[in-house]
Amino acid sequence: MSISQRINEIQESIPQHVKLVAVSKTKPNKDIMEAYEGGYRIFGENKPQELVQKYTDLPKDIQWHFIGHLQTNKVKYIAPFVSLIHAVDSIKLLKEINKQAKKNNRTIDCLLQFHIAAEQTKFGLTLEEAQEIVNSDDFKLLENIQITGVMGMATFTPDKTQVKKEFTNLKSIFEELKLKNFPLSTCFKEISMGMSGDYKIAIETGSTMIRVGSTIFGARELFKK
Q1: What one-character DSSP code corresponds to residue 223?
Q2: Which of 54, 63, 133, 216: CA 20 to 30 A from 46?
Q3: Model pLDDT for residues 129-172, shown as the tens digit of each residue
């Protein structure tokens, strides 16, 4: 089955309101172009350098999502073109994104990342930390970023009950923030959760955006410069 056929198969199996991000990290341009020629336009990358190279080499109507942990000193490289930053977990990072967005005369969409997994290695905020950020005076001064929702990664485990519980937690975090902090925002609507192994559970639990890599492109390879 081709890359385009796999994308079409996933899209046919998910509700219309759920957005598919094809995770193209470590994949060569020819694989992305195969998806592109099949009509697909939303791709996810997790390394700024690799993303900039792909942006430079590939068609300009691609929507690039940054899905990895982003260091503040790397924001400037992706700020001119990135469509959505999935994993914002500090006011420091938000300030830097705002600063670089302003330099590029843009407003950059961001998701707040939450730590919902049992694994300590994953990044993310607690609900209290997120509320502290969005209620802060610093946050109110940021005019070139837009918080459009939340993101989280479940524990890597075959235990579907645990995964569902973690996704349910993220959905309730989203609802709490929507109610208390973004009640009038029409943009605060995304719940980015679910990857190749668990996106069906994520959709059942309320995901509006899934990040799928290996199911589309096959097992991961090292990106060749």
Answers
A1: P
A2: 133
A3: 999 999 999 999 999 999 999 999 999 999 999 999 999 999 99
- CA 51/CA 68 separation, integer angstroms: 11
Residue 223, in any domain of the structure: no
What is the amino acid identity at position 214? S
Q: How many domains does the chain have?
A: 1
| Residue among 133, 83, 99 nearest 113 (CA) | 133
Beta strands in 50-139 (DSSP E): 63-66, 84-88, 108-114
- What lies within 8 Å, CB to CB, of 43 at 6+ separation is 21, 22, 23, 24, 32, 35, 54, 62, 63, 64, 65
62 — pLDDT class (breaks 50, 70, 90):
very high
The CATH number assigned to the domain holding 162 equals 3.20.20.10
Q: Is residue 222 part of a domain?
A: no
Q: Give residue 76's domain range.
A: 3-216
Domain-located, residue 224? no
- Please check whether residue 32 lies inside any domain of the structure: yes
